[in-house]
Amino acid sequence: MTTIQKTISSVNVDERATLSMRSGDTVRVWQKIKEGEKTRLQAFEGLVLARKHGAESGATFTVRKVMDGVGVERIFPLYSPSIDKIEIIRRSKVRRSKLYFVREKATKEIRHQMRKYIAQNKDLNTDTKHNKSEGATEKKAEPVLEEVKA
């Protein structure tokens, strides 16, 4: 009996299934983007927060990166034909399989850094104790001179 093998997807399924990507890894995902008639590759590099559904056909992974102080997360299907390749850049030892707590930790850290920055530069402080508006000036008490009538 002969078996006929048909290629439905351009993705190398065996290679993607054995990809040892896990939470805590820093990855670079090369995605094919079609603009008009041309296609180009665009990289999305960040921290893997979660990998869901193992190696089955609906497997996904979530990647987070910070651009211009704003956290950006993308959920990629593991077997998507629009993904050209996935590069594992760095491995980190983590003790959780889902790293969703990184979202809050990052915002707390940014808030803490902003506090330090504001404390160093009193002119940029938005607090009413330290910030004096340009138009308003403090009036100093002027001594009142009384005329003495003789």
How would you describe this structure in keywords?
150 residues; SH3 type barrels; 33% strand; alpha+beta; elongated; 17% helix; single chain; 5-stranded antiparallel sheet
- Order the strands across the largest sheet as they lie in space: 4-3-2-1-5
Helix-strand pattern: HEEEEEH
| Poorly predicted tracts of residues | none
Measured as a percent range, the helix fraction is: 10-25%
* Number of contiguous helices: 2
Span between termini:
133 Å
Number of strands: 5
Task: Round the Cα radius of gyration to an integer and report it.
Answer: 29 Å
Mind describing the biggest β-sheet? 5 strands, antiparallel
Supply the CATH class of one domain. Mainly Beta
Class per helix and strand makeup: alpha+beta
The CATH topology of one domain is what? SH3 type barrels
* CATH hierarchy: architecture of one domain: Roll
Describe this structure in words.
The chain has helices at residues 13-17, 101-120, and strands at 26-35, 38-52, 60-67, 70-77, 83-90. By secondary structure, it is α+β, with helices and mostly antiparallel strands. It has a domain at 13-99: SH3 type barrels. A five-stranded antiparallel sheet has the order 4-3-2-1-5, with no helix packed on it. Strand 1 and strand 2 (38-52) form a beta hairpin.
